[in-house]
Design goal:
GO terms for molecular function: delta(3)-delta(2)-enoyl-CoA isomerase activity. This is Enoyl-CoA hydratase. With 255 residues, the chain is an alpha/beta fold. The protein contains eleven helices and ten strands. The strands form two sheets. The protein has a six-stranded mixed beta sheet, with helices on both faces. Helix 2 packs antiparallel against helix 11 and helix 4 packs across helix 6. The longest helix is centred in the C-terminal third of the chain and has 33 residues. The radius of gyration is 18 Å and the shape is globular.
């Protein structure tokens, strides 16, 4: 600003919290963990650094306070609406799926839109009772992206998954549990403890065995995801460029 260069504070922290267990914490308090360019870049770098470590056995992905991840920024949604770029230009949705070792999404806070979807790509998902979870793409009038059309029905089932995508409603974690979501749901203050318990179980297992089994368990998802992404980009070409969508992004964002 004013021609001066500023050094941004990191919005993603990577720390080995216990032997063999690495925690990736999204902590952009200013933007409430929306996928700013800085957040996206630092998430990609975090998982690249994890990929170069040959001792880690489990990743815990989490947020801060009452926010897990809040999806795309209003600026980026408007850019996509104008036809300048595609969400697939920046692959943060597949980070947990592509990670060689198991990933635990400790969604202690709200998971909104692409933020919730990104968390669902983890091998273990833990929700909090109080937090809001939504795939709110259709609230704005455009079809879902980020691989949501694949992973949401896969993880939430053939009834609740399409309902979440089509209606774009907000659900508390407790409500998802009542509706039959198979994820463990705990009070927010207990989510990280539960994630660590899972990670400790994994840390007792040989790393090569974890990698070998994860490769086997997610091979179909990894194979199918590019096709779903391609289809989602095609649907965006049909649905994103409506004036109504632009108006909705301007008027409804953050509400």
């Amino acid at each position: 600003m004013g021609g001066m260069s500023t050094v941004s504070e990191s919005v993603v922290n990577v720390k080995e919290v216990e032997p063999y267990i690495v925690q990736v914490t999204m902590c952009d308090r200013v933007h409430k963990n929306t996928f700013t360019h800085q957040m996206s870049r630092e998430l990609i770098l975090a998982f690249q650094s994890i990929a170069t470590n040959n001792t880690f056995k489990a990743v815990i992905l989490t947020g801060f306070d009452s926010y897990f991840a809040s999806g795309g920024t209003q600026e980026d949604l408007l850019t996509l609406q104008e036809g300048n770029g595609k969400f697939s230009d920046n692959n943060i949705y597949g980070l947990a799926l592509d990670c060689r070792i198991p990933v635990i999404s400790a969604m202690q806070g709200h998971g909104i839109g692409g933020g919730f979807v990104m968390g669902l790509f983890a091998d273990f998902v833990i929700l909090s009772r109080e937090s809001i979870y939504t795939t709110n793409f259709m609230k704005y009038g455009f079809t879902p992206g980020m691989g949501a059309t694949m992973i949401v029905p896969h993880k939430l089932g053939p009834v609740l998954g399409p309902e979440m995508l089509l209606q774009a409603r907000r659900y508390r974690g407790a409500e998802l549990k009542e509706r039959g979501a198979v994820f463990p749901v705990y009070p927010r203050t207990e989510v990280m403890k539960q994630a660590l318990d899972v990670a400790r179980d994994l840390a007792r297992i040989p790393r090569v065995s974890l990698i070998t089994l994860k490769d086997h368990l997610v091979q179909q998802l990894r194979k199918d995801l590019p096709r779903f992404i391609e289809q989602e980009v095609t649907m965006h070409g049909i649905t994103f460029h409506q004036q109504e969508v632009r108006d909705n992004i301007r008027s409804l964002f953050g509400k």
